[in-house]
Structures are given as C-alpha cells and as structure tokens.
Amino acid sequence: TGWQQLTPENFYLFEQHAFSGRQFSASKYETIHAVLNFWQQHTIHWQALDAAAVAEKLSGIKGIGKWTVD
Predict the structure, then answer these.
(1) Whether the Cβ atoms of residue 59 and residue 69 lie closer than 8 Å to each other
(2) What is the pTM (predicted TM-score) of this model?
(3) 15-26 confidence digits (pLDDT tens)
(4) How far apart are CA 2 and CA 53, in angstroms?
C-alpha cells in the first residue's frame, strides 16, 4: 500500500485497500477522522491509566460514546 501510518490524509488509501465494496455513513467517517486526529495530537500512556481514566479519554473523542468505550 505504500503507507506506514494511518492518518486523515491517507485514510482514502486504507479505505480502498481494506473496505473495498463497503460504504460508511458520513458520521462514521467523521468518527474515524476524529480518532485519527486524537491519536496524532495526544501522547497517552494507556497502561498507566485505570479503566475510568481510559473511558474518560476515549469518550472525549467526537463520535465515541459510552457503548463504544465499554
């Protein structure tokens, strides 16, 4: 595929390779981009966090709700 890290800029390459023949809603795309942006902008030591802290961090991402976190 020619890419080493998934980013908002190269997501279309991932989509072409991994999701051929599948479509996502606009809100799913927004959530995927929000997750990618979160990972690019934050360095979090997940192993140092308890479950409540992890849930708080993840639920702060647009499109990630309680059911997804759980």
Answers:
(1) yes
(2) 0.66
(3) 777 776 777 788
(4) 35
